[in-house]
Specification:
By secondary structure, the protein is mostly helical. It is built from nine helices and no strands.
């Protein structure tokens, strides 16, 4: 009730747009009613998109907006609203592509890759060669930009591999992740994230 009058509020204050977007996104996450959740997510996307237009070089607004779009896509998936699901993901991909110098940003490429993995999973049960390829390109770019400091892009690639049926590729990626992290200074790194993740249970024994 308090947020309702703020839908469509006009401001060119980027920080205020961020706070408004977060307020609507947080409300969507807490609500148990899909109609209200969708309304709040749409308002959040609107505020984050306006903020992006003011700060086109920042990764923050596109990532926050696409997180809200992913929340919407999950609802559409549950409802079987396939066309709305596709349109929601495509809107997110357009936002990512509009970021100034996006090829040079680790965080943006990481979230872009994760968004594509979610797209492939929700829309095509991980069986879309074209979307999977785009996801791999973004996550590999993130790895290159991360300089062996981050395991997240490796884990996302490995998850995509096992979800799409390639266990061997999944194991290879996770072993590459361990080697990269150790060479980057994390000598005790042991793939704990993967070994505690049920998605990887069937290959746990190959990671010891």
């Amino acid at each position: 009730m308090l947020l309702k009058p703020l839908e469509g509020y006009y401001t060119e204050d980027a920080e205020l747009l961020n706070r408004l977007g977060k307020a609507f996104a947080d409300t969507a996450k807490r609500s148990a009613y899909n109609d209200l959740r969708l309304t709040c997510y749409k308002a959040a996307v609107d505020f984050f998109t306006k903020g992006h237009k003011l700060q086109q070089a920042a990764w923050t607004f596109p990532v926050y907006a696409t997180n809200a779009l992913l929340g919407m896509a999950k609802i559409y998936h549950e409802q079987g609203a396939y066309e709305k699901l596709i349109n929601t993901f495509e809107q997110g991909l357009q936002l990512f592509s509009q970021v100034y110098k996006h090829e040079e940003d680790f965080t943006l490429n990481l979230y872009w890759g994760d968004f594509l993995v979610a797209y492939s999973g929700l829309a095509y049960d991980y069986r879309s060669p074209s979307i999977n390829r785009l996801a791999e390109e973004r996550l590999q770019r993130s790895i290159a930009l991360g300089n062996n400091y981050y395991s997240h892009p490796y884990l996302s690639l490995a998850r995509l591999a096992i979800k799409s049926g390639d266990k061997g590729k999944c194991v290879k990626l996770l072993l590459q992740c361990r080697a990269a992290m150790r060479s980057g200074g994390y000598d005790a790194y042991d793939l704990g994230e993967a070994l505690g993740d049920e998605d990887f249970r069937e290959i746990w024994d190959q990671l010891q």
